[in-house]
Structures are given as C-alpha cells and as structure tokens.
Amino acid sequence: MSAPHEIIARYEKVFSRVQRTSYAPIIAVRGRNSKVFDISGKSYIDFTSSAAVTNLGYCDPEIVKVIREQAEELIHFTFIYGYNIPALHLAEELLTLTGFKDWRVVLGLSGSDANEGALMLAKGFRKNSNVLVSYLGSFHGCCVGTTTVSGVDLSVRVAEIVSPWLKSVKVPYPYCYRCPLGLSPKSCRMSCVDRVKTLIDKVGPENVVALITEPVQGDGGIVVPPENYFTQLENILRKHGIPMIVDEVQTGLGRTGRWFGYQHFGFRPDVITLGKPLGSGLPISAILGREDIMNSLPDFAYSFTLAGNPLIARVALRTIQLIKERDLVRRAEKLGETILSRLRRLRDESSIVGDVRGKGLMVGLELVKDKESKVRGFEEAKKVVWRAYELGLFVMFLSGNVLRIQPPLTIEEDVLEEGLNILEKSIKDVEEGRVGDDVLARVRGW
C-alpha cells in the first residue's frame, strides 16, 4: 500500500478543493466503535464521530448485520414511483419520535438537501413571502438555498457568488460568551430576541417565508442559547404565522441528551430536519413537518431517485431502534455532564481555555489568546488539534478556535477518559510552548 504522503498527493491531483479540508493526515482503513485505524495500523480515538455521524460508533455489529441482510433481499427499488416496506417503517418511526399529530415526512440523501427542501416547502406554504430569516454563525448546507441562509463566514462568501437572487436576512445568534450586543447575560433581558422582532417588523412579517435555526449552533462553535430564548422567539413567530424550521441535522437522534435538541428549550417547531447520524454513515436525511407545510408544493416537486432507498432506510430504522434499546439518549446526557465538569475544571486552570459549553455529547471548548481580551486562539486551536493527533486523538475545531467534542454515544468510559487525558495534555503542551509554529501549515480546517 502507498505511503500516507503519496496517497495525500494523489488526493490533491484528483479532488477539487471545494469539497474538503483537513485537520490531520489520517488515512482511515478500519473503524471499531470509538476508534479509527489508519493504513499503518495506528489507532485514534475519534472525538468527532466523523463529523457527528457515527452516533453508534464505527461498524456497529447490528448495523453491519442489517446491511448484509437487506443487501441480499433488495438494495434498491424506486421509492418515488413505487413502494418499499423499509421506507414506510422508517417514516412511521420518525413521526412516532416527534409525538406530533398530522405531520408528514420527506426523505432525502443529506442534511443539505433536507434543509433545502424545508426552505422550499416553507416558500410553498407562504407563497407571497420572499425573505428568509436565519442566524449569523449558522450552517445549513451547501445547496443554493442553504448556502444563502447559512451565516458562517465561508457560506457568506460563497452565497455572494452563487445566490444573489435569494433574499436572506441574518440576526445574531445568542452567543453569550461573545454577546454580539455587548451585553451581560445577567442583565440583558433577552435583547437578542428583540433584535429578531425588530428585523421582522422592518422587512414586514407578511414578507417572511420562515425562520431557520439550529437548537444548538453547531459549526458556529457549539453555541448554546439561553434557556428561555426559543420560547420567546416562538411567541413572536406564532403571532405572525411564520414557520420555524429547526435544523436537527447535527443535534438530532440523541446527540444532546435528548432525541431532538429543541426538546431542551420547551418550544414546538413547525419543521424538523435530520441527517448525519440517521444512516449510521450511509447517506440519508429526512424532513418532518406539519401537513399543511409538507404538502404545500405540487406532486413530485421535491424528489430524488435514490431517496427512500430500502437498504439505507432499514439501516436508519435500526439505528433509531438501537439508540432506544441501549438507552443512548440518557447515556449521552450523563457522559456529557462528565465531560463538561472535567473541562470546566481545565478552563479554570488554563490561560487559553476561554469557555466550555454544550449539551450532552455536543461540547465546545473555546480557545483564546488570553481570557481578558478573548481574542480568538486560531493558532492555538491548530496546535492543539495537531498535538492531539500525534498522541492518538482525532479532534477538530469549528469557527476557527472552538474544539468540537462529539464522540460516539457508545464510546467506552475508559476510552473517553483516555481521550480527555490526551486533550488536556495537548492543551497544556500548547499553553507551555511545546508545540512549534511549523505545525500551523499542516492543519487547515475551518
């Protein structure tokens, strides 16, 4: 087998730069639960769940079994022109999870297309409206519509090129550590909600198609809103009949210690989108929502040839069943409390750990130059990621300086402890100057 540097060089020759970035030169050939193995046989603890996908870990035996069984029976039969049983069972189970009556399902292939479809369905529902409201720091995908409503810097720059004809207005997400309004959480009186109301009043409530949000902002840096933020926001939207689309692509299916992230905050969405962990690594997504919104477009208006694929639908159903059977939602909550407790102690001791926040096994650790100025620690994040890689831990950062800690819901407790030990050592090594600037060019990230 080729050496790692040769394989990476071949990647550069065939793949467009628009599709990928890198944090560490791990060339994966095998995975087992919370560990991934490279071509040399070295193992790495994965604190990313391969981008919040492997909630059940790598190659869960039950998932492998279902793939084999279904592959021997029926790999594909068109869902858009005909019927297959696994897709039906999956849709029924998804609706049962929500507990809402008179909802419908649309199946897709990725979180991006789920959010794109949700925006289209909302537009069908609010036909005379033309403005989408979203958040700075958000990420909803790489389709034209989802790029437009995404608020991370990269998406904003791409949207200026590919989608200038779509109208999207963005408001600050309630990021209390870096309050965009310069206020204190203890005395702000939820001024961030007032900003949304002011914006809606300015563009005209009748012109707003929908508001799309993440219950915990993911790629913007694992940002957790104040507890009563969404209930106040819901009151504003309900007053004007504006749908709220909740992007659960990253937060859904147990990741935050609840089946859905929105359940932490006591409000009711109009549309929910799912992706990432739904297929345990196979491509599938879902839009769940109110019947009047979900049936707002003409027949066959949002369909994909491979959507509702029986093999992947059966895997998705088994994924949900295993999360239930193993009580992984509660486990995520418990392990998340363990992680937060330990990392907050580290924050109190470290000069470069500015904030620790999260829900369940979705934790962000924000690195800074110093705690007083809160200047983002971009270089520090790259160095920590590289040092962790050298020590056998795969971790990445979001928003340039927030370490993304999202291990599988099935991670063994001793492996979690080992990973946290490596992470803590990596941060201390960087803090004490034991990681040189030469590694900065090796880590790209975003």
Give me some keywords for this one.
39% helix, Aspartate Aminotransferase, domain 2, alpha/beta, 2 domains, seven-stranded mixed sheet
Topology:
Elements: H1 4-14, E1 28-32, E2 35-38, E3 43-46, H2 49-52, H3 61-73, H4 85-98, E4 103-108, H5 111-125, E5 131-135, H6 144-149, H7 153-162, E6 167-171, H8 191-203, E7 208-213, H9 229-240, E8 244-247, E9 271-274, E10 285-290, H10 291-294, H11 310-325, H12 328-349, E11 353-359, E12 362-367, H13 378-391, E13 393-394, E14 396-398, E15 402-405, H14 413-431
Parallel strand pairs: 3-13, 5-6, 5-7, 7-8, 8-9
Antiparallel strand pairs: 1-2, 2-3, 4-10, 9-10, 11-12, 12-15, 14-15
Task: Give structural notes.
With 446 residues, the protein is of the alpha/beta class. The chain has two domains: 4-59 and 327-442, Aspartate Aminotransferase, domain 1 (Alpha-Beta Complex), CATH 3.90.1150.10; 74-325, Type I PLP-dependent aspartate aminotransferase-like (Major domain) (Aspartate Aminotransferase, domain 2). It has 14 helices and 15 strands. The protein has helices at 4-14, 49-52, 61-73, 85-98, 111-125, 144-149, 153-162, 191-203, 229-240, 291-294, 310-325, 328-349, 378-391, 413-431; strands at residues 28-32, 35-38, 43-46, 103-108, 131-135, 167-171, 208-213, 244-247, 271-274, 285-290, 353-359, 362-367, 393-394, 396-398, 402-405. Strands 4-10-9-8-7-5-6 form a seven-stranded mixed beta sheet, sandwiched between helices. It has a four-stranded mixed beta sheet with strand order 1-2-3-13. Strand 2 and strand 3 (43-46) form a beta hairpin. The radius of gyration is 22 Å and the shape is globular. The chain starts with a helix and ends in a 15-residue tail after the last helix. The model has no long low-confidence stretch (mean pLDDT 95).
